[in-house]
Amino acid sequence: xxxxxxxxxxxxxxxxxxxxxxxxxxxxxxxxxxxxxxxxxxxxxxxxxxxxxxxxxxxxxxxxxxxxxxxxxxxxxxxxxxxxxxxxxxxxxxxxxxxxxxxxxxxxxxxxxxxxxxxxxxxxxxxxxxxxxxxxxx
Length: 138
Fold this sequence. Notes:
The chain is built from five helices and four strands. It is an alpha/beta fold. It has one domain (2-122): Transcription Regulator spoIIAA (2-Layer Sandwich).
């Protein structure tokens, strides 16, 4: 179950969510969101997640859309803060990629391919960076 409380004042609209943001409650949040933001000059929007105990994938996607449309997400506990951080990171990655690779990254890889290979190996668990030299005894 999810409780949605909308507190509307002239400058800010605050959606306070309490409970589990999952399943049919995601759709309910979407309907509330659209019904409250019908004015031509919508106020700043904050979504207070301090009372949320669980967020499923659909809930996370809905929050990402709300943030993309300008909402500020307010988190209280570690888990919710982590979800908000993931949303922000995914938005940042989406903005920076937009089908284009960062030109500085491309230039760095072209200028020193060895460094890129080392970086690739360091991200692979269980693989060793560098090489081992064996000396032969005569």
